[in-house]
Write a structure and sequence with these properties.
The chain is mostly helical and 349 residues long. The protein has 14 helices and no strands. It is 81% helix and 0% strand. Bound molecules: fe (ii) ion (4 copies).
């Protein structure tokens, strides 16, 4: 998809937001009136949505979001973008969960629990689109720097789109830009080690990587004892992971985004933020399947899904540990912002 100018791209995104909110309204009305004909076409609609939605998210993530953070350089706008970015991760994972069961959406079977799942998904998607239209895009529209950056990122995006593979081939949580920029290794910076939050997160990253390695080994050795205690292990992970994510999202990520102008670094941080959304959906899945996990069977699909989740978590922490944190440490502007955001967080507590 090649865009001539930002008006073109903005009109596309705005048009799609309208389609989403209109559809949500139609869906909820049909749901209320138990309209069988409408639900007969639901499965086809969800498949169509898969590709369209990924393209829509991709355009926002590679053009609108980086232009908003770099153009405005404002903590509140950056937090709004991070929140929207995380929702992309949450929504993508929920949509792919729905699509795995799409054949269960049988014509007119409204009592199917999947219909309720779809209703919840669409409602959240509608609120997401509304927030972008109401809060983010008008703020960007008023800012000339945001617009200039949008032009620049859009021409990069359009060029990329002409050569890039179909976006639907990519797995949620692993967009192209993240993979591209994830291979560069930086030596860890010493300059931030004085700050306790930095060492706390770094320690947690190492701990997480160690846990994942233990899990992989137990899986390989069919270690029954490890799997019998798996739910305790996951409980521990869940509790710690949440506060770990919050700390990154309120200080490290905004400092990286507002402090530097590097597009690749921005894409890496935004991709990490989407992964937080993906991981939180996975933690929810683990919570819902607690009983199966407690049974201690190694060979069950839940364990397989946990293995995929843990492997992705390990790559995520390695990227943060080796690339993002050292980059923040090396850059004066990022480092100063990090200190400021950490201080502001403390004073809010
Ligand atoms: Fe979005
Ligand atoms: Fe959107
Ligand atoms: Fe993270
Ligand atoms: Fe982390």
């Amino acid at each position: 998809m090649v865009f001539q100018n930002i008006e073109n791209a903005t009109a596309k995104i705005a048009g799609e937001h309208k389609l989403i909110t209109d559809y949500v309204e139609r869906f909820l009305k049909a749901y209320k009136h138990r309209d069988k004909a409408f639900f007969g076409e639901l499965s086809a609609f969800m498949s169509l949505m898969e590709k369209e939605l990924y393209n829509h998210f991709s355009l926002e993530e590679r053009v609108f979001f980086p232009a908003a953070v770099h153009g405005a350089k404002d903590y509140d706008i950056t937090l709004m973008v991070l929140n929207l970015q995380k929702e992309h991760g949450l929504l993508e994972t929920r949509l792919s969960g729905i699509l795995k069961n799409k054949y269960a959406i049988v014509s007119g079977r409204m009592e199917n629990p999947l219909v309720k799942t779809i209703a919840d998904f669409l409602k959240d998607l509608g609120s997401h689109a509304e927030m972008e239209m109401r809060d983010l895009f008008p703020a960007m529209d008023e800012n000339i720097r945001c617009k200039t950056l949008m032009e620049r990122y859009l021409s990069m995006f359009s060029k990329d789109e002409q050569t890039a593979p179909d976006i639907s081939d990519e797995k949620p949580g692993t967009r192209k830009a993240a993979a591209d920029s994830g291979n560069k290794k930086e030596s860890p910076s010493q300059s931030l080690s004085a700050y306790s939050s930095v060492s706390r997160l770094a320690g947690e990253h190492k701990l997480m990587a160690t846990h994942v390695t233990r899990f992989e080994r137990a899986l390989r050795d069919k270690d029954e004892k490890f799997f019998a205690e798996l739910s305790t292990f996951l409980e521990f992970l869940k509790k710690d992971l949440h506060s770990h994510f919050i700390l990154e999202e309120l200080s490290f990520f905004p400092a990286a985004l507002n402090g530097c102008f590097d597009y690749d670094m921005t894409m890496t941080v935004l991709n990490l933020q989407r992964q937080h959304g993906v991981f939180e959906t996975e933690l929810q899945y683990i919570r819902e399947n607690k009983q199966i996990i407690s049974a201690g069977w190694i060979k069950n699909p839940v364990i397989e899904r946990i293995a995929v989740f843990l492997r992705a978590l390990k790559s995520h922490v390695i990227l943060e540990l080796n690339q993002v944190f050292p980059n923040i440490g090396k850059d004066d502007a990022c480092r100063n912002l990090l200190i400021k955001y950490l201080k502001d967080m403390k004073s809010r507590d």
